[in-house]
Amino acid sequence: MLSKSKVTVSMANSVNICLEFSGGAELLFDMVKKHDVSLPGNSQPWTIKSLLVWIKENLLKERPELFVQGDTVRPGILVLINDVDWELMGELEYQLEENDRIVFISTLHGG
Amino acid sequence: MAASGPENSELVRLREEVAEKTREIERLKLILAERNSTSAQTKEATPALIESGNIRDVPTFQPADGLDKPSIARYSRQLILPELGVKGQLALGGTSVLLVGAGGLGCPAAVYLAAAGIGRLGLVDYDSVELNNLHRQVLHTEGKVGTPKALSAATAVKGLNSTVQCVPYHLQLDSTNALDIIKQYDIVVDCTDNVATRYLLNDACVLTNKPLVSGSALRFEGQLTVYNYKGGPCYRCMYPTPPPPETVTNCSDGGVLGVVPGIIGCLQALEVIKMAARQEVSYSQRLLLFDALDGTFRAIKLRPRQASCAVCGDAPTVTQLQDYEQFCGAKACDKTQSLRILQDNERISVQEYHTVLSSSAPHLLVDVRQPVELDICQLPNPINVPISQVSRPEQLQRLKTAVNCKLKQLEQDDKKLPVYVVCRQGNDSQIAVQHLKKLLSDLPVNVTDIRGGLMAWARKIDTSFPEY
Ligand SMILES: [Zn+2]
Protein backbone atom coordinates (compact mmCIF):
# COMPACT_ATOMS: atom_id res chain seq x y z
CA MET A 1 0.00 0.00 0.00
CA LEU A 2 2.65 2.45 1.07
CA SER A 3 4.90 1.92 -1.93
CA LYS A 4 1.95 2.17 -4.31
CA SER A 5 0.89 5.55 -2.97
CA LYS A 6 4.48 6.70 -3.24
CA VAL A 7 4.49 5.85 -6.94
CA THR A 8 1.23 7.74 -7.44
CA VAL A 9 2.72 10.83 -5.78
CA SER A 10 5.79 10.84 -7.99
CA MET A 11 3.67 10.25 -11.11
CA ALA A 12 1.40 13.11 -10.09
CA ASN A 13 4.35 15.43 -10.42
CA SER A 14 4.60 14.92 -14.15
CA VAL A 15 2.37 17.37 -16.00
CA ASN A 16 1.25 18.07 -19.54
CA ILE A 17 1.05 21.77 -20.29
CA CYS A 18 0.82 24.08 -23.27
CA LEU A 19 3.59 26.64 -23.70
CA GLU A 20 3.15 29.66 -25.96
CA PHE A 21 5.57 32.33 -27.05
CA SER A 22 4.53 35.57 -28.71
CA GLY A 23 5.41 39.21 -29.31
CA GLY A 24 8.72 38.08 -30.82
CA ALA A 25 9.66 35.63 -28.00
CA GLU A 26 8.90 32.85 -30.51
CA LEU A 27 11.96 33.93 -32.53
CA LEU A 28 14.06 32.24 -29.84
CA PHE A 29 12.11 28.99 -30.31
CA ASP A 30 12.46 28.37 -34.05
CA MET A 31 9.45 30.62 -34.76
CA VAL A 32 7.18 28.01 -33.17
CA LYS A 33 4.50 29.73 -31.11
CA LYS A 34 2.81 26.74 -29.49
CA HIS A 35 4.53 23.82 -27.79
CA ASP A 36 2.65 20.98 -26.09
CA VAL A 37 5.08 19.61 -23.54
CA SER A 38 5.11 16.81 -21.00
CA LEU A 39 7.18 17.69 -17.99
CA PRO A 40 8.66 14.48 -16.54
CA GLY A 41 8.07 13.22 -13.00
CA ASN A 42 10.03 15.24 -10.52
CA SER A 43 10.78 14.95 -6.81
CA GLN A 44 9.27 18.42 -6.34
CA PRO A 45 6.05 19.75 -7.87
CA TRP A 46 6.69 21.76 -11.06
CA THR A 47 6.69 25.54 -10.62
CA ILE A 48 7.25 28.40 -13.06
CA LYS A 49 10.74 28.61 -11.60
CA SER A 50 11.60 24.98 -12.42
CA LEU A 51 9.76 25.31 -15.76
CA LEU A 52 12.14 28.14 -16.74
CA VAL A 53 15.12 25.88 -16.02
CA TRP A 54 13.51 23.11 -18.07
CA ILE A 55 12.83 25.50 -20.99
CA LYS A 56 16.41 26.74 -20.89
CA GLU A 57 17.75 23.18 -21.02
CA ASN A 58 15.28 21.63 -23.44
CA LEU A 59 13.76 24.24 -25.76
CA LEU A 60 16.06 27.23 -25.77
CA LYS A 61 19.09 26.38 -27.82
CA GLU A 62 20.67 29.77 -28.44
CA ARG A 63 21.15 33.09 -26.70
CA PRO A 64 19.37 32.23 -23.40
CA GLU A 65 20.11 35.76 -22.12
CA LEU A 66 17.41 37.06 -24.46
CA PHE A 67 14.85 35.02 -22.49
CA VAL A 68 16.01 34.41 -18.93
CA GLN A 69 17.98 36.53 -16.51
CA GLY A 70 19.08 34.85 -13.28
CA ASP A 71 16.24 32.54 -12.22
CA THR A 72 13.46 34.63 -13.80
CA VAL A 73 12.43 35.98 -17.22
CA ARG A 74 14.28 39.00 -18.57
CA PRO A 75 12.65 42.45 -18.21
CA GLY A 76 10.07 43.06 -20.94
CA ILE A 77 8.67 39.52 -20.95
CA LEU A 78 5.26 39.11 -19.35
CA VAL A 79 4.20 35.67 -18.14
CA LEU A 80 0.54 34.67 -18.36
CA ILE A 81 -0.90 31.71 -16.52
CA ASN A 82 -4.20 30.66 -18.08
CA ASP A 83 -4.78 34.18 -19.43
CA VAL A 84 -3.95 35.88 -16.12
CA ASP A 85 -0.91 38.04 -15.32
CA TRP A 86 1.46 35.77 -13.31
CA GLU A 87 1.80 38.49 -10.67
CA LEU A 88 -1.72 37.52 -9.53
CA MET A 89 -0.82 33.81 -9.46
CA GLY A 90 2.32 33.71 -7.31
CA GLU A 91 4.88 34.37 -10.07
CA LEU A 92 7.86 31.98 -9.89
CA GLU A 93 6.30 29.91 -7.10
CA TYR A 94 3.10 29.06 -8.97
CA GLN A 95 2.64 25.25 -9.08
CA LEU A 96 1.82 23.96 -12.54
CA GLU A 97 -1.33 21.93 -13.01
CA GLU A 98 -2.36 19.53 -15.74
CA ASN A 99 -3.38 21.35 -18.97
CA ASP A 100 -2.17 24.75 -17.80
CA ARG A 101 -1.46 27.21 -20.56
CA ILE A 102 1.64 29.28 -19.88
CA VAL A 103 2.29 32.18 -22.26
CA PHE A 104 5.47 34.21 -22.48
CA ILE A 105 4.95 37.47 -24.33
CA SER A 106 7.55 39.96 -25.27
CA THR A 107 6.05 43.44 -24.97
CA LEU A 108 5.91 45.35 -28.22
CA HIS A 109 7.09 48.92 -28.57
CA GLY A 110 6.56 49.67 -32.28
CA GLY A 111 3.90 51.90 -33.73
CA MET B 1 -42.67 73.48 -93.26
CA ALA B 2 -41.61 77.15 -93.71
CA ALA B 3 -42.85 79.29 -90.80
CA SER B 4 -44.55 82.60 -91.44
CA GLY B 5 -42.64 85.91 -90.80
CA PRO B 6 -44.00 87.11 -87.36
CA GLU B 7 -43.94 83.57 -85.86
CA ASN B 8 -40.29 83.17 -86.87
CA SER B 9 -39.15 86.42 -85.19
CA GLU B 10 -40.98 85.41 -81.96
CA LEU B 11 -39.01 82.13 -81.86
CA VAL B 12 -35.72 83.94 -82.39
CA ARG B 13 -36.51 86.34 -79.53
CA LEU B 14 -37.37 83.45 -77.16
CA ARG B 15 -34.21 81.57 -78.07
CA GLU B 16 -32.10 84.65 -77.36
CA GLU B 17 -33.81 85.12 -74.00
CA VAL B 18 -33.16 81.49 -73.00
CA ALA B 19 -29.52 81.80 -74.05
CA GLU B 20 -29.12 84.97 -71.98
CA LYS B 21 -30.73 83.40 -68.86
CA THR B 22 -28.50 80.34 -69.29
CA ARG B 23 -25.42 82.57 -69.35
CA GLU B 24 -26.71 84.34 -66.23
CA ILE B 25 -27.19 80.99 -64.46
CA GLU B 26 -23.67 79.88 -65.45
CA ARG B 27 -22.25 83.16 -64.14
CA LEU B 28 -24.10 82.78 -60.82
CA LYS B 29 -22.97 79.16 -60.53
CA LEU B 30 -19.36 80.24 -60.99
CA ILE B 31 -19.64 82.90 -58.31
CA LEU B 32 -21.24 80.39 -55.96
CA ALA B 33 -18.52 77.80 -56.60
CA GLU B 34 -15.83 80.42 -55.98
CA ARG B 35 -17.42 81.55 -52.71
CA ASN B 36 -17.81 77.88 -51.62
CA SER B 37 -14.21 77.06 -52.25
CA THR B 38 -12.87 80.16 -50.45
CA SER B 39 -14.96 79.38 -47.40
CA ALA B 40 -13.85 75.74 -47.51
CA GLN B 41 -10.25 76.86 -47.79
CA THR B 42 -10.55 79.08 -44.72
CA LYS B 43 -12.00 76.16 -42.80
CA GLU B 44 -9.31 73.75 -44.01
CA ALA B 45 -6.49 76.21 -43.50
CA THR B 46 -3.34 74.54 -42.22
CA PRO B 47 -3.35 74.63 -38.42
CA ALA B 48 -0.50 76.64 -36.88
CA LEU B 49 2.47 74.39 -36.12
CA ILE B 50 3.73 74.32 -32.55
CA GLU B 51 7.49 73.83 -32.28
CA SER B 52 9.85 73.61 -29.32
CA GLY B 53 9.97 77.39 -28.82
CA ASN B 54 6.25 78.00 -28.49
CA ILE B 55 4.68 75.05 -26.67
CA ARG B 56 2.46 77.32 -24.60
CA ASP B 57 1.03 79.10 -27.68
CA VAL B 58 -1.85 76.67 -27.87
CA PRO B 59 -5.11 78.33 -28.99
CA THR B 60 -7.71 78.52 -26.24
CA PHE B 61 -10.16 75.68 -26.17
CA GLN B 62 -13.81 76.70 -25.83
CA PRO B 63 -16.14 73.78 -26.23
CA ALA B 64 -19.69 74.49 -27.40
CA ASP B 65 -22.40 74.13 -24.78
CA GLY B 66 -24.98 72.83 -27.23
CA LEU B 67 -25.26 71.13 -30.63
CA ASP B 68 -26.11 73.33 -33.60
CA LYS B 69 -28.04 72.09 -36.65
CA PRO B 70 -24.93 71.10 -38.69
CA SER B 71 -23.51 69.20 -35.68
CA ILE B 72 -26.77 67.33 -35.19
CA ALA B 73 -26.74 66.37 -38.87
CA ARG B 74 -23.07 65.36 -38.80
CA TYR B 75 -23.28 63.19 -35.68
CA SER B 76 -26.88 61.99 -36.14
CA ARG B 77 -25.98 58.31 -36.58
CA GLN B 78 -24.13 58.20 -33.28
CA LEU B 79 -26.42 60.67 -31.48
CA ILE B 80 -29.27 58.15 -31.60
CA LEU B 81 -27.17 55.60 -29.68
CA PRO B 82 -28.61 55.70 -26.14
CA GLU B 83 -25.10 55.05 -24.73
CA LEU B 84 -23.88 58.28 -26.31
CA GLY B 85 -26.76 60.69 -27.01
CA VAL B 86 -26.51 64.47 -26.90
CA LYS B 87 -24.90 64.33 -23.48
CA GLY B 88 -22.16 61.99 -24.70
CA GLN B 89 -21.61 64.01 -27.88
CA LEU B 90 -21.20 67.20 -25.87
CA ALA B 91 -18.77 65.35 -23.58
CA LEU B 92 -16.71 64.30 -26.64
CA GLY B 93 -16.70 67.89 -27.87
CA GLY B 94 -15.57 69.03 -24.43
CA THR B 95 -12.62 66.61 -24.29
CA SER B 96 -9.09 67.36 -25.39
CA VAL B 97 -6.90 64.44 -26.40
CA LEU B 98 -3.15 64.36 -26.95
CA LEU B 99 -1.96 61.80 -29.50
CA VAL B 100 1.77 61.17 -29.23
CA GLY B 101 3.05 59.73 -32.51
CA ALA B 102 1.37 60.44 -35.86
CA GLY B 103 2.40 57.10 -37.36
CA GLY B 104 0.86 53.66 -37.82
CA LEU B 105 -1.18 53.87 -34.60
CA GLY B 106 -1.65 57.64 -34.47
CA CYS B 107 -3.12 58.02 -37.97
CA PRO B 108 -6.12 55.68 -37.55
CA ALA B 109 -6.66 56.86 -33.96
CA ALA B 110 -6.72 60.50 -35.14
CA VAL B 111 -9.18 59.76 -37.95
CA TYR B 112 -11.81 58.19 -35.69
CA LEU B 113 -11.35 60.69 -32.86
CA ALA B 114 -11.78 63.61 -35.25
CA ALA B 115 -14.69 62.00 -37.07
CA ALA B 116 -16.44 61.32 -33.76
CA GLY B 117 -16.13 64.98 -32.78
CA ILE B 118 -13.41 65.13 -30.11
CA GLY B 119 -13.08 68.78 -29.11
CA ARG B 120 -9.34 69.26 -29.29
CA LEU B 121 -6.77 66.94 -30.82
CA GLY B 122 -3.07 67.53 -30.12
CA LEU B 123 -0.76 65.64 -32.52
CA VAL B 124 2.88 65.25 -31.51
CA ASP B 125 5.57 63.95 -33.87
CA TYR B 126 9.17 65.05 -34.40
CA ASP B 127 9.49 63.16 -37.68
CA SER B 128 8.70 63.94 -41.32
CA VAL B 129 6.76 61.78 -43.76
CA GLU B 130 8.79 59.18 -45.69
CA LEU B 131 7.69 56.97 -48.58
CA ASN B 132 8.16 53.84 -46.42
CA ASN B 133 5.58 55.21 -43.93
CA LEU B 134 2.67 55.27 -46.36
CA HIS B 135 1.77 51.55 -46.17
CA ARG B 136 0.56 52.02 -42.59
CA GLN B 137 0.46 55.74 -41.74
CA VAL B 138 -2.67 56.23 -43.73
CA LEU B 139 -3.34 59.95 -43.14
CA HIS B 140 -0.19 60.94 -45.01
CA THR B 141 -0.15 61.09 -48.80
CA GLU B 142 2.48 60.97 -51.55
CA GLY B 143 2.39 64.74 -51.82
CA LYS B 144 3.26 65.08 -48.12
CA VAL B 145 6.57 63.18 -48.26
CA GLY B 146 9.13 65.41 -46.55
CA THR B 147 6.65 67.51 -44.55
CA PRO B 148 6.30 67.20 -40.74
CA LYS B 149 4.01 64.30 -39.84
CA ALA B 150 2.21 66.36 -37.19
CA LEU B 151 1.28 68.96 -39.79
CA SER B 152 0.35 66.42 -42.46
CA ALA B 153 -1.91 64.55 -40.02
CA ALA B 154 -3.48 67.75 -38.65
CA THR B 155 -4.25 69.03 -42.15
CA ALA B 156 -5.86 65.72 -43.14
CA VAL B 157 -7.91 65.57 -39.95
CA LYS B 158 -9.01 69.19 -40.37
CA GLY B 159 -10.27 68.34 -43.85
CA LEU B 160 -12.36 65.55 -42.37
CA ASN B 161 -13.84 67.59 -39.53
CA SER B 162 -13.14 71.31 -39.50
CA THR B 163 -14.90 71.74 -36.15
CA VAL B 164 -12.15 69.83 -34.31
CA GLN B 165 -9.43 72.06 -32.92
CA CYS B 166 -6.20 70.50 -34.19
CA VAL B 167 -2.88 71.34 -32.56
CA PRO B 168 0.15 69.93 -34.41
CA TYR B 169 3.42 69.74 -32.43
CA HIS B 170 6.52 69.24 -34.56
CA LEU B 171 8.90 68.34 -31.73
CA GLN B 172 10.42 65.47 -29.79
CA LEU B 173 8.54 64.96 -26.54
CA ASP B 174 11.14 64.93 -23.74
CA SER B 175 11.58 65.56 -20.01
CA THR B 176 11.73 69.32 -20.51
CA ASN B 177 8.44 69.78 -22.38
CA ALA B 178 6.24 66.74 -21.66
CA LEU B 179 4.52 68.05 -18.51
CA ASP B 180 3.75 71.49 -20.02
CA ILE B 181 2.21 69.89 -23.09
CA ILE B 182 0.29 67.09 -21.35
CA LYS B 183 -1.21 69.46 -18.73
CA GLN B 184 -3.34 71.05 -21.46
CA TYR B 185 -5.11 67.78 -22.30
CA ASP B 186 -7.55 65.38 -20.59
CA ILE B 187 -6.47 62.06 -22.10
CA VAL B 188 -3.11 60.98 -23.53
CA VAL B 189 -2.77 58.33 -26.27
CA ASP B 190 0.55 56.51 -26.61
CA CYS B 191 1.11 55.87 -30.32
CA THR B 192 4.90 56.03 -30.05
CA ASP B 193 7.47 53.63 -31.41
CA ASN B 194 10.17 53.36 -28.74
CA VAL B 195 10.71 52.30 -25.13
CA ALA B 196 12.20 55.56 -23.82
CA THR B 197 9.19 57.65 -24.89
CA ARG B 198 6.81 55.03 -23.43
CA TYR B 199 8.40 55.39 -19.96
CA LEU B 200 8.47 59.18 -20.36
CA LEU B 201 4.77 59.32 -21.25
CA ASN B 202 3.86 56.98 -18.41
CA ASP B 203 5.67 59.01 -15.77
CA ALA B 204 4.35 62.30 -17.16
CA CYS B 205 0.79 60.94 -17.06
CA VAL B 206 1.16 59.69 -13.48
CA LEU B 207 2.65 63.03 -12.38
CA THR B 208 -0.16 65.02 -14.04
CA ASN B 209 -2.86 62.44 -13.22
CA LYS B 210 -3.94 61.74 -16.81
CA PRO B 211 -5.09 58.40 -18.19
CA LEU B 212 -2.81 56.86 -20.83
CA VAL B 213 -4.28 54.78 -23.65
CA SER B 214 -1.35 52.73 -24.84
CA GLY B 215 -1.04 50.75 -28.07
CA SER B 216 1.81 48.99 -29.83
CA ALA B 217 2.32 46.80 -32.88
CA LEU B 218 5.02 44.80 -34.62
CA ARG B 219 5.00 42.24 -37.43
CA PHE B 220 1.55 40.60 -37.14
CA GLU B 221 0.84 41.38 -33.49
CA GLY B 222 -0.66 44.22 -31.52
CA GLN B 223 -1.12 45.04 -27.83
CA LEU B 224 -3.40 47.53 -26.06
CA THR B 225 -3.81 48.64 -22.41
CA VAL B 226 -5.18 51.67 -20.56
CA TYR B 227 -2.74 52.78 -17.84
CA ASN B 228 -3.14 55.02 -14.83
CA TYR B 229 -6.93 55.04 -14.93
CA LYS B 230 -9.21 54.84 -11.87
CA GLY B 231 -6.68 53.10 -9.63
CA GLY B 232 -5.43 50.68 -12.30
CA PRO B 233 -1.74 49.93 -12.88
CA CYS B 234 0.68 52.15 -14.76
CA TYR B 235 3.28 51.06 -17.32
CA ARG B 236 5.95 50.86 -14.61
CA CYS B 237 3.72 48.68 -12.40
CA MET B 238 3.84 46.18 -15.27
CA TYR B 239 7.43 46.75 -16.37
CA PRO B 240 9.51 48.21 -13.51
CA THR B 241 12.76 47.57 -15.41
CA PRO B 242 13.22 48.50 -19.08
CA PRO B 243 14.05 45.65 -21.45
CA PRO B 244 17.70 45.16 -22.46
CA PRO B 245 18.12 47.33 -25.62
CA GLU B 246 19.30 44.36 -27.70
CA THR B 247 15.94 42.62 -27.13
CA VAL B 248 13.91 45.51 -28.55
CA THR B 249 12.89 45.25 -32.20
CA ASN B 250 11.63 48.27 -34.14
CA CYS B 251 9.35 48.26 -37.20
CA SER B 252 12.22 48.98 -39.61
CA ASP B 253 14.08 45.83 -38.49
CA GLY B 254 11.17 43.55 -37.60
CA GLY B 255 8.64 44.72 -40.16
CA VAL B 256 4.93 45.38 -39.63
CA LEU B 257 1.81 44.81 -41.69
CA GLY B 258 0.04 48.19 -41.96
CA VAL B 259 -3.42 47.00 -41.01
CA VAL B 260 -2.15 45.65 -37.65
CA PRO B 261 -1.31 49.05 -36.10
CA GLY B 262 -4.43 50.22 -37.97
CA ILE B 263 -6.61 47.90 -35.89
CA ILE B 264 -4.87 48.74 -32.61
CA GLY B 265 -5.04 52.49 -33.36
CA CYS B 266 -8.79 52.17 -33.99
CA LEU B 267 -9.19 50.36 -30.66
CA GLN B 268 -7.24 53.14 -28.93
CA ALA B 269 -9.68 55.66 -30.40
CA LEU B 270 -12.56 53.52 -29.15
CA GLU B 271 -11.21 53.45 -25.59
CA VAL B 272 -10.72 57.24 -25.69
CA ILE B 273 -14.27 57.80 -26.98
CA LYS B 274 -15.75 55.62 -24.23
CA MET B 275 -13.67 57.37 -21.60
CA ALA B 276 -14.60 60.82 -22.91
CA ALA B 277 -18.30 59.89 -23.12
CA ARG B 278 -18.21 58.68 -19.50
CA GLN B 279 -18.69 55.03 -20.45
CA GLU B 280 -16.77 52.16 -18.88
CA VAL B 281 -13.43 51.56 -20.59
CA SER B 282 -12.55 47.96 -21.43
CA TYR B 283 -8.80 47.74 -21.03
CA SER B 284 -7.90 49.31 -17.71
CA GLN B 285 -6.00 46.61 -15.78
CA ARG B 286 -6.45 44.43 -18.85
CA LEU B 287 -4.20 43.72 -21.80
CA LEU B 288 -5.49 43.00 -25.27
CA LEU B 289 -3.33 40.72 -27.39
CA PHE B 290 -4.12 40.72 -31.10
CA ASP B 291 -2.58 38.04 -33.31
CA ALA B 292 -3.28 38.90 -36.93
CA LEU B 293 -1.97 35.59 -38.29
CA ASP B 294 -4.23 33.50 -36.02
CA GLY B 295 -7.01 36.10 -36.26
CA THR B 296 -7.39 36.06 -32.49
CA PHE B 297 -8.02 38.67 -29.82
CA ARG B 298 -7.24 37.65 -26.25
CA ALA B 299 -7.88 39.75 -23.14
CA ILE B 300 -5.61 39.22 -20.15
CA LYS B 301 -6.37 40.22 -16.57
CA LEU B 302 -3.50 42.31 -15.24
CA ARG B 303 -2.16 43.04 -11.75
CA PRO B 304 -3.61 46.05 -9.90
CA ARG B 305 -1.60 49.21 -9.17
CA GLN B 306 1.56 48.12 -7.34
CA ALA B 307 2.27 49.65 -3.94
CA SER B 308 5.96 49.20 -4.75
CA CYS B 309 5.78 51.09 -8.08
CA ALA B 310 8.54 53.68 -8.45
CA VAL B 311 6.18 56.33 -9.85
CA CYS B 312 2.57 55.53 -8.84
CA GLY B 313 3.31 53.45 -5.71
CA ASP B 314 2.88 54.35 -2.04
CA ALA B 315 6.39 55.75 -1.67
CA PRO B 316 7.36 56.88 -5.17
CA THR B 317 11.02 57.49 -5.93
CA VAL B 318 10.28 59.05 -9.32
CA THR B 319 8.76 62.43 -8.43
CA GLN B 320 9.90 64.30 -11.52
CA LEU B 321 10.77 63.34 -15.07
CA GLN B 322 14.13 61.66 -15.65
CA ASP B 323 16.54 61.10 -18.51
CA TYR B 324 14.69 58.26 -20.23
CA GLU B 325 17.25 57.56 -22.93
CA GLN B 326 19.75 56.88 -20.16
CA PHE B 327 17.22 54.86 -18.14
CA CYS B 328 16.45 52.62 -21.14
CA GLY B 329 19.93 52.66 -22.68
CA ALA B 330 18.27 53.46 -25.99
CA LYS B 331 17.40 56.53 -28.06
CA ALA B 332 13.87 57.96 -28.02
CA CYS B 333 13.25 57.11 -31.66
CA ASP B 334 12.83 53.96 -33.73
CA LYS B 335 15.76 54.61 -36.02
CA THR B 336 18.33 51.82 -35.89
CA GLN B 337 21.50 53.13 -34.26
CA SER B 338 24.84 52.39 -35.91
CA LEU B 339 26.89 50.08 -33.72
CA ARG B 340 30.67 50.15 -33.52
CA ILE B 341 31.70 46.74 -32.32
CA LEU B 342 34.74 45.97 -34.46
CA GLN B 343 38.14 47.61 -34.85
CA ASP B 344 38.84 49.57 -38.06
CA ASN B 345 41.16 46.81 -39.35
CA GLU B 346 38.27 44.32 -39.13
CA ARG B 347 36.13 46.37 -41.51
CA ILE B 348 36.30 47.52 -45.11
CA SER B 349 34.35 50.27 -46.85
CA VAL B 350 31.84 49.65 -49.65
CA GLN B 351 34.32 51.35 -52.03
CA GLU B 352 36.97 48.78 -51.10
CA TYR B 353 34.51 45.94 -51.62
CA HIS B 354 33.57 47.45 -54.98
CA THR B 355 37.25 47.18 -55.99
CA VAL B 356 37.38 43.55 -54.81
CA LEU B 357 34.27 42.76 -56.83
CA SER B 358 35.43 44.48 -60.04
CA SER B 359 38.90 42.84 -59.90
CA SER B 360 37.23 39.39 -59.43
CA ALA B 361 39.70 38.64 -56.64
CA PRO B 362 38.84 35.30 -54.95
CA HIS B 363 36.75 35.88 -51.84
CA LEU B 364 33.57 34.71 -50.11
CA LEU B 365 30.64 37.04 -49.47
CA VAL B 366 28.45 36.04 -46.50
CA ASP B 367 25.07 37.79 -46.34
CA VAL B 368 23.65 37.45 -42.80
CA ARG B 369 20.15 38.83 -43.48
CA GLN B 370 16.94 36.79 -43.44
CA PRO B 371 16.22 34.92 -46.72
CA VAL B 372 13.17 37.15 -47.35
CA GLU B 373 15.51 40.15 -47.46
CA LEU B 374 17.75 38.54 -50.09
CA ASP B 375 14.67 38.28 -52.29
CA ILE B 376 14.43 42.10 -52.15
CA CYS B 377 18.02 42.78 -53.20
CA GLN B 378 21.51 41.27 -52.99
CA LEU B 379 25.08 41.63 -54.18
CA PRO B 380 26.45 39.01 -56.63
CA ASN B 381 26.99 35.42 -55.38
CA PRO B 382 26.48 35.66 -51.64
CA ILE B 383 26.18 32.66 -49.35
CA ASN B 384 23.20 33.32 -47.05
CA VAL B 385 23.67 32.50 -43.37
CA PRO B 386 21.04 34.39 -41.32
CA ILE B 387 22.49 36.05 -38.21
CA SER B 388 20.12 34.04 -36.00
CA GLN B 389 21.60 30.80 -37.34
CA VAL B 390 25.35 31.47 -37.56
CA SER B 391 26.23 29.06 -34.77
CA ARG B 392 24.03 26.19 -36.04
CA PRO B 393 26.08 23.12 -37.05
CA GLU B 394 24.37 22.69 -40.44
CA GLN B 395 24.94 26.33 -41.37
CA LEU B 396 28.55 26.17 -40.22
CA GLN B 397 29.05 23.05 -42.34
CA ARG B 398 27.65 24.84 -45.44
CA LEU B 399 29.92 27.77 -44.78
CA LYS B 400 33.01 25.62 -44.33
CA THR B 401 32.29 23.77 -47.56
CA ALA B 402 32.02 27.10 -49.39
CA VAL B 403 35.27 28.32 -47.83
CA ASN B 404 37.12 25.12 -48.82
CA CYS B 405 35.81 25.39 -52.37
CA LYS B 406 37.07 28.99 -52.65
CA LEU B 407 40.39 28.13 -51.03
CA LYS B 408 41.16 25.93 -54.06
CA GLN B 409 40.94 29.03 -56.27
CA LEU B 410 43.72 30.73 -54.29
CA GLU B 411 47.00 30.72 -56.16
CA GLN B 412 49.36 30.48 -53.23
CA ASP B 413 48.60 27.94 -50.54
CA ASP B 414 49.86 30.16 -47.75
CA LYS B 415 47.46 33.01 -48.51
CA LYS B 416 44.29 33.57 -46.48
CA LEU B 417 40.86 33.65 -48.09
CA PRO B 418 39.05 36.95 -47.54
CA VAL B 419 35.54 36.39 -46.14
CA TYR B 420 33.39 39.54 -46.29
CA VAL B 421 30.25 39.76 -44.17
CA VAL B 422 27.36 41.99 -45.16
CA CYS B 423 23.89 42.84 -43.83
CA ARG B 424 21.44 45.71 -44.41
CA GLN B 425 22.96 48.46 -42.26
CA GLY B 426 26.21 47.05 -40.94
CA ASN B 427 25.23 46.14 -37.37
CA ASP B 428 24.40 42.43 -37.60
CA SER B 429 27.40 41.92 -39.88
CA GLN B 430 29.73 43.09 -37.11
CA ILE B 431 28.19 40.65 -34.63
CA ALA B 432 28.48 37.91 -37.24
CA VAL B 433 32.16 38.71 -37.82
CA GLN B 434 32.82 38.22 -34.11
CA HIS B 435 31.11 34.79 -34.20
CA LEU B 436 32.66 33.69 -37.49
CA LYS B 437 36.20 34.57 -36.42
CA LYS B 438 35.84 31.97 -33.67
CA LEU B 439 33.82 29.45 -35.65
CA LEU B 440 36.18 29.48 -38.66
CA SER B 441 39.40 29.73 -36.65
CA ASP B 442 40.54 26.31 -37.98
CA LEU B 443 40.52 27.57 -41.58
CA PRO B 444 42.92 30.01 -43.32
CA VAL B 445 40.42 32.87 -43.59
CA ASN B 446 40.35 36.57 -42.88
CA VAL B 447 36.83 37.61 -41.80
CA THR B 448 35.95 41.27 -42.44
CA ASP B 449 32.82 43.39 -42.09
CA ILE B 450 31.52 45.57 -44.93
CA ARG B 451 30.96 48.86 -43.15
CA GLY B 452 27.44 50.29 -43.45
CA GLY B 453 26.14 47.23 -45.30
CA LEU B 454 23.93 47.28 -48.37
CA MET B 455 22.43 50.67 -47.54
CA ALA B 456 25.91 52.21 -47.78
CA TRP B 457 26.34 50.36 -51.09
CA ALA B 458 23.08 51.87 -52.35
CA ARG B 459 24.10 55.37 -51.32
CA LYS B 460 27.76 55.36 -52.34
CA ILE B 461 28.29 52.78 -55.10
CA ASP B 462 25.07 51.96 -56.93
CA THR B 463 22.22 54.44 -56.55
CA SER B 464 19.88 52.12 -58.45
CA PHE B 465 20.30 49.49 -55.70
CA PRO B 466 17.05 49.30 -53.66
CA GLU B 467 16.93 50.79 -50.14
CA TYR B 468 14.48 49.39 -47.64
ZN1 LIG C 1 2.81 52.24 -11.33
TrEMBL record, chain A:
One of its GO terms (cellular component) is cytosol. It comes from the Eukaryota. C-terminal thiocarboxylation occurs in 2 steps, it is first acyl-adenylated (-COAMP) via the hesA/moeB/thiF part of the MOCS3/UBA4 homolog, then thiocarboxylated (-COSH) via the rhodanese domain of the MOCS3/UBA4 homolog. There is a cross-link at G111 (Glycyl lysine isopeptide (Gly-Lys) (interchain with K-? in acceptor proteins)). The keyword Cytoplasm applies. The modification 1-thioglycine is found at G111. Keywords: Cytoplasm, Isopeptide bond, tRNA processing, Ubl conjugation pathway. GO terms for biological process: protein urmylation; tRNA thio-modification; tRNA wobble uridine modification. InterPro entries: Beta-grasp_dom_sf, Mopterin_synth/thiamin_S_b, Urm1. GO terms for molecular function: protein tag activity. Its main location: cytoplasm. It is found in: Cytoplasm. CDD domains: Ubl_Urm1 (cd01764). Pathway: tRNA modification; 5-methoxycarbonylmethyl-2-thiouridine-tRNA biosynthesis. Acts as a sulfur carrier required for 2-thiolation of mcm(5)S(2)U at tRNA wobble positions of cytosolic tRNA(Lys), tRNA(Glu) and tRNA(Gln). Serves as sulfur donor in tRNA 2-thiolation reaction by being thiocarboxylated (-COSH) at its C-terminus by the MOCS3/UBA4 homolog. The sulfur is then transferred to tRNA to form 2-thiolation of mcm(5)S(2)U. Also acts as a ubiquitin-like protein (UBL) that is covalently conjugated via an isopeptide bond to lysine residues of target proteins. Belongs to the URM1 family. This is Ubiquitin-related modifier 1 homolog. The lineage of its organism: Eukaryota, Metazoa, Chordata, Cephalochordata, Leptocardii. The gene is LOC118420730.
TrEMBL record, chain B:
It is an enzyme of class 2 (transferase). Keywords: ATP-binding, Cytoplasm, Metal-binding, Molybdenum cofactor biosynthesis, Multifunctional enzyme, Nucleotide-binding, Transferase, tRNA processing, Zinc. GO terms for molecular function: adenylyltransferase activity; ATP binding; metal ion binding; nucleotidyltransferase activity; thiosulfate-cyanide sulfurtransferase activity; URM1 activating enzyme activity. The keyword Cell membrane does not apply. Zn(2+) binds at C234, C237, C309, C312. Binds 1 zinc ion per subunit. NCBIfam families: PRK05690.1. This is Adenylyltransferase and sulfurtransferase MOCS3 homolog. It comes from Branchiostoma floridae.
